[in-house]
Amino acid sequence: MSDNAHDRGITLVTGVAGFIGFHVARRLMALGRPVVGVDNLSDYYEVSLKEARLRVLQEENGPGPFTFERMDLADRDAVTALFAAHAPRRVIHLAAQPGVRYSLKNPHAYAEANLVAFLNVLEGCRHGKVEHLTYASSSSVYGANTAMPFSVHDNVDHPLSLYAATKKANELMAHSYSHLFGLPTTGLRFFTVYGPWGRPDMAVYAFTRAIARGEPIRLFNHGQSLRDFTYIDDIVEGVVRVSDRAAAPNLEWSGARPDPASSFSPYRVYNIGNHTPVPVTELVALIEAELGRRAETILLDAEPGDVPATFADVDDLMRDVGFRPATPLAEGIRRFVAWFREYEGAPP
Predict the structure, then answer these.
(1) Residue 343 annotated as catalytic
(2) The one catalytic residue among 135, 142, 163, 270
(3) What pLDDT, on the 0 to 100 scale, is given for residue 8?
C-alpha cells in the first residue's frame, strides 16, 4: 500500500531507543508519518547507545513528527495515560527484554517486560480502538523444532528458554484479543537481526568489537551453529509493510485442522528472515576480512537454551506483502563495519 493510500495518523513505536525500534521510527518519519516513541532506557546494554539513537531521531525530525515518552510499559497507569494522550492509529510493539542467555539468570525481568507490559499494550490497543497492532515475536519460539526451514504453519510448543516462552505467550495473548475484541494483531518472528546501530550483546556487534580490540571471542557449539542473519533494512521494510496491512480473518481456517499462522479472527504470524542460514564461523570470517584482523577464538559447547540452527520460510510474507529479505550477509557486514568504525572511532 502506498503512503498516500491511508490515513497518516500517529504510529506508536515501543522500544524506540532499541535497535529495531530506532530504525522503524526513522523509516516511518522519512515517509512523513508522525511517531510517538516509548522506551524505558533499560541498562541491559549500554544506555549511551540508546541515547545516541534517540539524538539521531530528535535531530533529524525535531519536535513535530517525533515525540518521545520515557516510561516502563509494565506500569499500567502510565500506559493507560499514554494511549489517552496520543490516541495512536497503529502500534508497533518492539519493546522487550531480549536475550536467551540472560533469561537463565534473571527470569523475572522477562515476566515484567514481555508479559505484563504486553498485556498493558493490548489493553491500550483495545480501549483505544487501535486499527492494527504489529508486535515482535522471535525465531526462538521454534525451540526444539528441527524441520527446516521453520514454517509459521508448524506448531511451536517446545520452547528451549524462558525468553522463547514469553514470545510464544505474546502470540497466544494477541490471539485472544483478536478473538475477543476484534483487534487486528500481527506477530513477526525476527531471525537474528544485525546492522548499523545494532545491539552490542548480539554476535555481529560483539564479535566486531572484540576482534577490533584484539580480544578473544567465544564461539558456542564450536562455531557450528547456523543462523539466518537478517539485515536491518530488510526487517524494517517488512515491519512497515505488515503494519500498513491490518490482519484479517482467514475465511478458510478450520478448527478441525487449525493453522497456527492465522485464525478465524484478525490474527496473523509471519517469519522475517533472510532464508539463508550460515555457520557462525562464516560470519567471523567476513568480519575478519572487513577489519583486516584475525580473530582469537575460544570454542565452547552449546549453552542451555541455544538452538543449533535457524532458517526462515518467508513464503507467506512474500505472498501477503510482496517482500522477502535478500541482503547478502557479506554486504550487510560491510555496511555494519563501516558504521562501527565511525561510531566507535575504530581505526580503518
Answers:
(1) no
(2) 163
(3) 63
